[in-house]
């Protein structure tokens, strides 16, 4: 299961190139053993009203299925920049790990990290994880409402 | 060209397709299986959602599987859980999970378990090749059957060819549908087809007022569950959250406070197209179609294997020419029209003989004709016929090319046609070529001659004529490829006839233990041919088998023909003597299964297979035998046994005609005398089997034409239905 191998990726691309100052953030999403095919996962930043600010990671390479990551697709209008921040879908019971750059301006400013998931033939879970993006709360793991057993980010 | 389009892609993708189709067959079972477990009953989405919401705490999403099974996702404690629910009550029946086997098979079907885009592309290309193979195969088959009008007609050819053709004819539609939809899905996967549809707009919120009951929401009431794909309920803790619904008809957002549409978009053409394609390909939502397509995919290994063997057979008989003169130097142009390359075997023998006789011969496929050589004096054409009078593969463009060429009045020509008398337009292409050459101003040396079913004597007879015409000695060494032989020992013989030189013998042969292996006979049926190569001979002679392999003995009738290459030797073999022989299936002369009456007509040794059919008629099927012999005391083969067969009911009637009695009578006279009864039998479904010499068979056919006149049936029609078959020598 290639897609399921825990992937540690050090991406150098800027998540939000327009912000000058940025720092790395490590993302970790462990999926439950939901018993389906590989999951598509979108991890992204919105403001309090849900407006898209930055896409941190998209797992699943077929863009035709991205519409099933519903909140992310809706919020970004399907036009999010994903260069350098996308990878293979994540198998059941596997963990997605990625390190990406995040603009300092997004930290401690009322923004949220959302996680959307979707699996073929199974339910879609838009915004199954919603956590505030703060320098303090980072390492606390939270469970999602869908396939995400635990999610945390480390700044 | 058509054949290349058929064979080459098929060979390349065969193995891949067998795997992909195999997985597809297994997958096709799931929709039917799941459908059987789905609850039925019409209900609207509002009612369903209210029932589920009432029964399951924390219900989040309700999905309807294409099979009709309803699955609800709900929070159980901290974890999400998927349950199959009863749409009538909303009650959870069981946990739901996509079957593990289904996922594995789907991975195999889509990516050969490699799960990468390279494999996806390979499978997509295989599907595209399959479209090409099915379409080209369809045109090949139509040509072989003699045009689209005869597409549903009776198949001809040997077992391998018929297995391939008959299977293809049944499943082509299913395979084409599977392949086309597979290509469409593959293109969609790689974004090469538009997906259609717009994403729902961002920022839609509920009005925030108190929510009304799900059951009363007009938007949800307007959607039938049969249309539902997915329904996401509004988050209880978020007053601004909305209800999102996806149906077969489109996508929408509902305000939980009013129960009305905030937004609705009907599915557009592309979305409906992709949905239809997916349904047709997977059978999800149309389980019976899935099963049908699965059954047609099941034949892919059969088609691949038989197709490969046919291709191999054609390749093996590819021509190898020695001493082929260039066209500009050649005095003799030998053109060959061949479909399966068997005609090349004869052409090469003739080519070699002509070269040995000192002629400068240029031999080529008929399609290679571009111009006459400056020194060409004569043209010899050896051509097969494809299907019902069509040109074979290597002659498909000949007539068009001939039309464009300069007239060549000085050229003389002869045409030899190869064919199978079972086909209504026997050697049709040879006659067409002959006519075209005459019309083009060439001088015909003779009317076209024919060779039936690769008959070596007929070929050699024509070569002898050619030798006389050219005034050269032609040493034609034709060697048919002989199958492996079996050693047989003469067990007994019975002789009939007054003159020892021309008597007829019934020989019974048994297999001999060889190389320490158990003595056994290969499979053969009554009416199949025993090929015997006489000592010092090269070409086999064929004798119809009276017995079948199950009888444990080979029984044949041999008429001694003084001066013959084989029969005097064979007819004089005494019990204990051995010979080597092989069996050749004679599919066209098998007794049709069923209980319909059978009219058997034979003369001389032609009685052999007919007696065999009667002996095996334990079921007492009505059989009527018309048998012609010289006289009651001369050549009346199986006379006593026939009386016995009548007595025990295996033979209904026995009618004999003796050509040396007074008054003399032939079988056709007896047939005509019984015309009324025979017409009645045939109208009621009887089949007719004729075995014997050519003259007798022609006389019998004329008699049947008279018998059938005015009955609404005709001889060509009976032949086309396989109800009038001949074994003629």
From TrEMBL, chain A:
Entry-linked InterPro entries: DUF2271 (IPR014469), FAD/NAD-bd_sf (IPR036188)
Alphabetical keyword list: Signal
UniProt cross-references to Pfam families, sorted A to Z: DUF2271
Residues in the signal sequence: 1-22
Full protein name: Uncharacterized protein DUF2271
Automatic annotation (TrEMBL), chain B:
Group of enzyme by EC: oxidoreductase
Domain FAD-binding FR-type: 483-592
Domain Flavodoxin-like residues, every copy: 332-467
Membrane-spanning parts: 12-33, 121-142, 170-193, 286-312
One cellular component term from this protein's GO annotations in UniProt: cytosol
EC number: 1.6.2.4
MF-aspect GO terms: [methionine synthase] reductase (NADPH) activity; flavin adenine dinucleotide binding; FMN binding
PROSITE patterns tied to this protein: FAD_FR, FLAVODOXIN_LIKE
Keyword set includes Flavoprotein: yes
Top-level division of the source organism's lineage: Bacteria
GO process annotations (BP): homocysteine metabolic process; methionine biosynthetic process
Annotated Pfam families: Flavodoxin_1 (PF00258), NAD_binding_1 (PF00175), PepSY_TM (PF03929)
Keyword vocabulary terms for this entry: Flavoprotein, FMN, Membrane, Transmembrane, Transmembrane helix
PANTHER family in UniProt: NADPH--CYTOCHROME P450 REDUCTASE, NITRIC OXIDE SYNTHASE-RELATED
Name of this chain's protein: NADPH--hemoprotein reductase
